[in-house]
Batch of 3 targets.
Target 1
Amino acid sequence: MPLQGTFDVLDFSAVLELLAERGMTGRLHVRSRSFAANLFLADGMIVGADQSEHQAAAVTGDVAQRVQEICFELLGADRGSFEFHPGRSNAPVGVNMTVKEAMDEARQRLEEWQELQELIPSLDLQPRLVTELDPGQVTLDREQWRVLTVVDGRRNLRSIGRALNLSDFEVCRAMRELLAAKVIELDVRAAGIAGLNDSEPSPATEHITINGKRATRLRTEAQPEAHDDAQGGHATIVISPNGAQRREAAPSRAAAGATATPDE
């Protein structure tokens, strides 16, 4: 007989802890707003997971990542329901994780998410490439490069997440790293969010005449020329397969600007 209820009576973490304490085996189906997922347990351990009815982000990746995404989404949910169907399932075993491990990681992710929201308060913000890199060398890992390739100045963060099959958390985390590397900037005005960047100066305008009528447009300013660093090198981007590592700037060979070259 399945165990079922709502999160306003027994929250998600309490449901998982109860199943773990009793060493239950079966499938836990959880639903909250537009999010739905299944967690598979064997003797109180989480051994598998799948998702549906949510952004496709967490459907990909390894099972441990999927479990983290599910627990993160449902941690603290005050609306939703659960159904536990006991018995062995045909779901392949992809992980062997305790409920405590899963919930600890979910709480850490929630803390990081709150920090990300302070930096990136809206998914309607549009990232764009900076016109000039800082002198020196910028190192990006392959995932950061994958995100950077879809930054076109038109897509907002939500659209980028959909295009790359990333969750809101994952796309914001990637943007934080790209912001720290100073290869992108966020267009606050495009999101229509007042007060996010009050210190930003208003764009310069100029008056023009079109077909005998006066109009106002943004003034096109010439971009400052790129300056070499102290060693005569230009800004470059290096793509690293194993994560970002700082390197010393290399002297320029021929062309100025940014180049992307994979590590060996």
Target 2
Amino acid sequence: MDKQLSEREFICGDYSIADMATFPWIAAYDFMGLTLDNHLNLKRWLETLQQRPAVQKGMTVA
């Protein structure tokens, strides 16, 4: 994913269902004991998505 995101802002170019479906899995990296320190494009993508109001709202659903 890091390589894919080095060439575009989102997974498929424009923000899409691919980003929506992948986000929760990547957002749990810390819970899984992982780091994004060596994946700067993936980290940028995650931080970009975390700023989206709809993503914030969706992540609060319990």
Target 3
Amino acid sequence: MKVLIKNGYIVSMATEIHKGDILIEDDRISRIGMIECDVDKVIDATNKIVMPGLINAHTHVGMSLFRGYSDESELMEWLSKKIWPVENNMTKSDVYHASLLSGIEMIKSGTTTFNDHYFYEEETARAAELLGLRAILARAIISSEEEAIKRIAEAEELYNNWHNKCDGRIKVCVGLHAPYTCPPDTMKMGVKLADRLGTPIHIHYLETRDEVKQMREMYNMTSTEYLKKAGVFNYHVMLAHGVQVDADSLETLKDISGGIIHNPISNQKLGSGIADIKKLRDNGINVALGTDGQGSTNTLDMFEEIKSAAYLQKVLYNSATALSAEDVIKMATIEGAKVLGIDSEVGSLEEGKKADIIIIDTNKPHLCPLHNIYSLLAYSVNGADVQTSIIDGKVVMEDRKITSIDEEDVMRDCRRIVESLFRK
């Protein structure tokens, strides 16, 4: 299958922005330039922006059913009194339909890759397979003793059944929940599993001041010291949040493979604080962007996270130049790919890389005029401006229409589930 994208503004994240064409052959970008050849499909991108698909580097897509359920709550109260009790009643089918809803939302707002951390992840894998999304999945490992052993077994089963499936679109890593919910024996089992499977580790990290206090009370250590002692930093590690990174932690992070995943809207909404992303990046630490789950962030629109990330650093530093538009777009694309360890395949538009591409329609009042494309993407574009999404060389959304599933059916199923689930 050959697809030719014609005459777009190409934001490759590897070269200067320029007008041109992109030829896709099967699942990869074969040529970028001014191209004339016979193809199966031509997409006219005149006056449109062609860029890498966005990478949502930390989320819980099974939580779409929690959107708006419990707002204005502190993190630990929100988890223990609202979220976890309902999650205990969720079925595999609930997570499947919730994942479909999230997948549709992500595709329609420009996300082509997501990094998920939840339970019943095989159902999320099935949803990603159907929708054509690229995914890294982790069964959340939490608790201790028999419960932890059960979850370790489920994590390994997920790996055996789904890692590198769907022509490599779906990968599996080890997902430890957080330092304060994984006691030493659980942490040790998770690290051993990552070593045996050869996968990265995805873990919540330094999200709140309460975590800092709790770790000091429980172990007389910081989260960073705890993870270092457990050997977590010996592996490629994806650290979600990093709001409370202190000077000592910063020194440790300079040497890791992987990086921090910034979730600006979730951190604001839960009152967790403002992560000092500028300091992390200035010290050579890779920083990606994520939405977190819809329970705390409400939408999976990565363009909203892009705006928020840039604005927060400007406020934090009292400087309009603290984080540039180009830099924050990098965080949502190529830097996100680096944090996830998949930058050799995705995150930029380059010949030989996977064809994960989105096309932005600029023929809208809020996107006119076009002075600076990076500024437009960072501060003006929203998810509804994404006209076409291509993943692995396949057009999964064209003219805002998902090609693989009926959106109305999915929304109807999710409304039915909510009526039952939240009244148990």
